[in-house]
Specification:
This protein is mainly α. It contains two helices and no strands. The chain is rod-shaped.
Length: 77
């Protein structure tokens, strides 16, 4: 996943900074190439986002359990 993310980053940085090198119209990526790269970037970001929110929900569940009031009205699990 890291390799793919790096390749996507290099691709978009290259085409975001056209002034850094000669680039004729024939070397500019096609709409299909751009679409594939954007879809790949979205897929990679979705994976990261899903892992983040899974972890966040697990932490929230642990915190809720740890902060429950016990029968005596004291905080504790």
């Amino acid at each position: 996943m890291v390799r793919e993310w790096r390749e996507i980053t290099v691709f978009f940085v290259k085409w975001a900074h056209l002034h850094d090198e000669e680039s004729g119209p024939e070397s500019i990526p096609s709409d299909d190439d751009l679409r594939r790269q954007v879809e790949l970037a979205e897929t990679l970001m979705d994976g990261v986002r899903a892992e983040f929110f899974d972890s966040l929900h697990a932490i929230e569940d642990l915190l809720a359990e740890a902060n429950q009031l016990n029968e005596g009205g004291e905080v504790g699990g």
